[in-house]
Amino acid sequence: MKEKKMASILWTLLLLMICPSQQDSVIYASVGRTVILPGDGVGGPNCSSVEWYDGPYGGDLRMIWPDVPPERAGRLSLLPDCSLHITNITTEEAGHYTCGRPWSGGEKWFLLILLDGVIYASVGGTVILPGDGVGGPNCSSVEWYEVPYDGIWRKIWPDVPPERAGRLSLLPDCSLHITNITTEEAGLYTYRHPLSGGTKRFRLILLDGVIYASVGGTAILPGDGVGGPNCSSVEWYEVPYGVEPWRNIWPDVSPERAGRLSLLPDCSLHITNITTEEAGHYTCGRPWSGGEKRFLLILLDGVIYSSVGRTAILPGDGVGGPNCSSVEWRDNPAS
């Protein structure tokens, strides 16, 4: 048993080192949200022979489909293409998954990483990754690590890499402050050692733009001619809030979006009659391949105009319960 556990830990370490370079292999989600692990029709007709296994960090692989564990009943389901759909994710479900019998050859492997937050920024901008005072008095014991896309974990605080000297600093609550962000700094961040437990994980996504729209409206995501002559090689992908992984939406338009997506002459994506499910982030070009363009589509309930020194009212519509006791308002100033 000890040898099996050690082998599982070593396999998790290997996945963490090699999977970021494979866009189908690492799936990000958050506790309480939903995730889809792609099956790609591996289970034969009607997925009758498909098997799914999971292996939490440090644990042994076990079958979870078709033999669904009691504690996950009602939260696992199989999609028509044999993908595994998981709802209301718990912290214990982080780890690695395989579709097909493990070690038999031909199986698909995924690493499910649960995030404490997704941070959006732009090249040349500034970002703060929340520390929440985890590093003890004066943050003396805090450690920050990162794994850029296509890279492996490395410590960046207190051992600041030479190329980032003067751009990283620690705030009083142990948060990491990064200035003049570069394209290479997109990826995954964690404080304390990545595999030590008790860590918080954040995903830093660098955007080429934020697009605002409303339900039922229209949006254009700029392509800027990235798809070659006649846009013949362009690919558009999206990942809606809380649902992973990336999925191709152009040229493989899903049935529910047929007639609502079109490509403009400069390879921009034109979306009409937008639905609430279409909020999230989009990329033009294969995700994680380099050279792609990323956009965040935010759906608004309204636009409020005001002037400096004047007054504005943002409608709450009674969402906070009796006496508004549970209401929270947040802002995100334009950068």
Report on this model:
By secondary structure, the chain is mainly beta. The chain folds into 3 domains: 2-114, Sandwich (Immunoglobulin-like), CATH 2.60.40; 117-206, Immunoglobulin-like, CATH 2.60.40.10; 209-299, Sandwich (Immunoglobulin-like), CATH 2.60.40.10. 5% of the residues lie in helices and 31% in strands. The chain contains 1 helix and 24 strands. The strands form 6 sheets. The protein has a 5-stranded mixed sheet with strand order 1-8-7-3-4, with helices on one face. Strands 9-16-15-11-12 form a 5-stranded mixed sheet, with no helix packed on it. The protein starts with a helix and ends in a 36-residue tail after the last strand. 24% of the residues are buried.
List descriptors:
Immunoglobulin-like; 5-stranded mixed sheet; mainly beta; 24 strands; 335 residues; 3 domains
In summary, what is this structure?
With 335 residues, the chain is mainly beta. The protein is built from one helix and 24 strands. The radius of gyration is 22 Å and the shape is globular.
